[in-house]
Amino acid sequence: SMVTVGATGGIFAVVHTLDPNAVKALPALFLFGMALTWAALRTGRIGTSICMHVGFNLLAVIQA
Q1: Which of 17, 23, 29, 52 has its CB 3.0 to 4.6 Å from that of 13, i.e. a possible disulfide?
Q2: What does the pLDDT read at residue 6?
Q3: How large is the angle between the packed helices 26-43 and 47-63, nearest 10 degrees?
Q4: What is the rounded CA–CA span in Å between residue 20 and residue 43?
Q5: For residue 15, what are the CA distances in angstroms to 37, 42, 44, 63, 64?
């Protein structure tokens, strides 16, 4: 449901604020968390979300 997607996206974003540098990216992290949740619900598999997260992290490492 949309409540699940929103709540999980919010949790995803808040957990990432443990890194003080991530606070400025909070809106993007919230949206990305929602996308990860939506993908898991849509496919019924968490692997899709894991691959998306790994790809996102890889892009951040390449950018750094």
Answers
A1: 29
A2: 96
A3: 150
A4: 33
A5: 15, 23, 23, 22, 21
Structure tokens at 31: 């949206």
pLDDT of residue 62: 95
pLDDT, tens only, 17-29? 999 988 999 999 9
**Does residue 40 contact residue 53 with C-beta atoms inside 8 Å?**
no
Task: Name the region of 44 (left: φ>0; alpha: ψ -120 to 50; beta: rest).
Answer: left
* pLDDT at residue 64 tops 90: no
Helix axes 2-16, 26-43, angle to 10 degrees: 130
Q: What is the pTM of this model?
A: 0.88
Instruction: Provide the 3-class DSSP secondary structure of residue 18.
Output: coil
